[in-house]
């Protein structure tokens, strides 16, 4: 019965997924870092709303539509389903179950927190037959970090190299190449060439040992490599940290 209820909650939420900006249940942090040496990691939730909520939590490997019972991840997460009263908190226990994961780079997973508010009173529903009860889902990144990786995550953004590339549709992009074993998430990127700037406020993430493109529109750059790239990356604590890379490879 509990499993059927859990799946029904998830199907409902994925059908009516809305922004978590109005959710009462809040995650303490914007990302989770699981150091391999740790026996377990705790994630704290709090209900900042004025009503109790039924909360379901699960992990996935990158598919936002994956059901909790369909996602195969090397972690246990408890409790998976619980009631959270207003102005109260709940700690989630996350334990790595030791299934093999790459030891030369970070692995990425996603933590989902689904909040279902209490059903409106019968009298309220009768007064407004068109009322709709919405569920709220928050989804944040979980990075599994093996022991002994070279360097550290705070240095990774400065080691990313940049160049302009032309895509098949004729538009240009700024390509970022990450040679480190860490994921690097940028919230803002500004490429400078002479008096011209190309800005990406959307940002994005570059996987370990991989490249990612950031659109700069249809304006052709003057050189293959920008004179300077100013950026803001997100550190382990969810804070934005600024930096810059010059054409000659100098990092500041």
Automatic annotation (TrEMBL):
Keywords attached to this entry: Chaperone, Fimbrium biogenesis, Immunoglobulin domain, Periplasm, Signal
Compartments it resides in: Periplasm
Protein's GO biological process: cell wall organization
GO cellular component: outer membrane-bounded periplasmic space
Predominant subcellular localization, coarse grouping: periplasm
PROSITE patterns in the record: PILI_CHAPERONE (PS00635)
Residues of the signal peptide: 1-23
SUPFAM superfamilies documented for this protein: PapD-like, Periplasmic chaperone C-domain
Pfam families recorded: PapD_C, PapD_N
Pili assembly chaperone N-terminal domain: residues covered: 24-149
Keyword Chaperone assigned: yes
Domain Pili assembly chaperone C-terminal span(s) in chain numbering: 177-240
Similarity-based family: Belongs to the periplasmic pilus chaperone family.
Official protein name in the record: Fimbria/pilus periplasmic chaperone
Organism: Paraburkholderia madseniana
């Amino acid at each position: 019965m509990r499993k059927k209820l859990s799946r029904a909650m998830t199907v409902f939420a994925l059908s009516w997924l809305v922004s978590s900006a109005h959710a009462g249940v809040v995650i303490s942090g914007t990302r989770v870092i699981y150091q391999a040496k740790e026996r377990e990691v705790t994630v704290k939730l709090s209900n900042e709303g004025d009503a109790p909520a039924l909360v379901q939590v699960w992990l996935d490997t990158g598919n936002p539509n994956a059901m909790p019972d369909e996602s195969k991840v090397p972690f246990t997460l408890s409790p998976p389903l619980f009631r959270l009263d207003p102005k109260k908190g709940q700690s989630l226990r996350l334990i790595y179950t030791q299934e093999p994961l790459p030891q030369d780079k970070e692995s990425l997973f996603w933590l989902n927190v689904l909040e279902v508010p209490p059903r409106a009173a019968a009298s309220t529903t009768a007064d407004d037959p068109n009322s709709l009860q919405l569920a709220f889902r928050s989804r944040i990144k979980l990075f599994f970090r093996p022991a002994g990786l070279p360097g550290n995550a705070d240095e990774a953004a400065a080691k990313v190299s940049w160049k302009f590339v032309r895509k098949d549709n004729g538009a240009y992009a700024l390509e970022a190449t990450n040679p480190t074993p860490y994921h690097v998430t940028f919230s803002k990127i500004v490429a400078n060439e002479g008096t011209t700037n190309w800005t990406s406020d959307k940002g994005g993430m570059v996987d370990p040992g991989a490249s990612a493109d950031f659109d700069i529109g249809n304006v052709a750059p003057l050189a293959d490599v920008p004179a300077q790239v100013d950026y803001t990356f997100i550190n382990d604590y969810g804070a934005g940290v600024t930096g810059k890379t010059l054409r000659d490879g100098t990092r500041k």
